[in-house]
Amino acid sequence: xxxxxxxxxxxxxxxxxxxxxxxxxxxxxxxxxxxxxxxxxxxxxxxxxxxxxxxxxxxxxxxxxxxxxxxxxxxxxxxxxxxxxxxxxxxxxxxxxxxxxxxxxxxxxxxxxxxxxxxxxxxxxxxxxxxxxxxxxxxxxxxxxxxxxxxxxxxxxxxxxxxxxxxxxxxxxxxxxxxxxxxxxxxxxxxxxxxxxxxxxxxxxxxxxxxxxxxxxxxxxxxxxxxxxxxxxxxxxxxxxxxxxxxxxxxxxxxxxxxxxxxxxxxxxxxxxxxxxxxxxxxxxxxxxxxxxxxxxxxxxxxxxxxxxxxxxxxxxxxxxxxxxxxxxxxxxxxxxxxxxxxxxxxxxxxxxxxxxxxxxxxxxxxxxxxxxxxxxxxxxxx
Length: 383
Hints:
Layout: H1 18-32, E1 37-43, H2 49-54, E2 66-71, H3 82-88, H4 103-106, H5 120-134, E3 139-144, H6 151-162, E4 169-176, H7 182-192, E5 197-201, H8 207-217, H9 224-234, H10 238-250, H11 260-279, H12 284-296, H13 302-309, H14 313-325, H15 339-348, H16 353-365, H17 370-382
Parallel strand pairs: 1-4, 1-5, 2-3, 3-4
C-alpha cells in the first residue's frame, strides 16, 4: 500500500508486513488486557518503520486508549528528556499535575538553571504520571526515530516497563540499526532484553511483495521482467521502490519488456539521489571514503582506501561508522549495503580519471592480480 504515511493505516494491510502488523496488534491486545508490552521495530533506512508506527494509533484496538507519539530529532535541548516532553505535550498538563521531581523535565522554562538527571526521583515522578493515565485507559507510547532519542527518555521508558507488568501499557519504539551510541545504546539494550519486549527486524521486500507494490501502480500489462528490474533497482527497499515507481510514472514508462531499460536508468538516478541525501551534512571526507571504497572494491583494505581518499586509517574507520549509520555500507561489514549501491555512489560522487589511475596503482601495489585490477576499474564504465 502506497501513499502518505499520515493517511495510510491498517484498513488495508501493508504489503509484505502482515507479520509485523500482527505483532503490533498483539501488543495492543495485551495492553488492553492489562499486561504491559513493548514492541521494537528496527531496520535500515527506508524499510517502513515510520509507516508501521504511524498506523498504531489508527488500529481498531487503539480505540479508547491514550496514544502519545514522539518523533525524535538529532537536536537535543539543554534540559534533556526531549522525547518525554514530546510524548506528554498533547495532554496540556500544568506543573500542579505532576510530581515535583518531574517538573523540571516537563516544564524546563520554570527551572532554566536545572538540568534534570535521570535519577530515581525523576524517573519515579514520571512513572507516577504514566500510572495515573493508565488508571483511566490503556496507555500507548510510540517513539519513532528512537536512534536519535536522548538517553534520559530511553532510561525512563526502561524504568517504566520494569515496573508495569500488570499495567495496561504498550511501548512501541522504531529505530535504525547500528545508529545508537553511548547512553542511548545502553538504555535500548536494557529495553530489548526485557521479557515483555518483542523485536521486529524489518528487512527488504521479497520479489512477490515488490510485484504486489508494482501492480498497484501498473495494474495492467505488467511484465515479470519489469518486476525483476524494479526489485534489482530498489533492492526491495520500500522507500526507494516508491520513489522509483513515482519517477517511472512521471516519465510515462510502461511496465513491459521495453520499460526494463528505463527502470535500470531511472533506478540508478534514484539511488544516486538517495546516497547524496543520506550523506548530506556529513564531513567531505566521508564522501571521499565512500567513493574510494566503491572504486577499489571490497577486497581493498583500510590502508588502500585511506591512500586513495587522502585521509588517515582512523578517519576511514570513523567514516565507515557514519556510512553504516547512513545505510550506505552494510551493518555487518565494510561492503556496500546492496549490489547497486556501489554504482550509485560512483554516480553520486564521481571520481576523476586521475583518481582511477591512482586506484589502479594502489591495487597493484597491494598485490591484486592485474586482470582483477583492470576488470574492476572498467566495471563501472560497463554498468
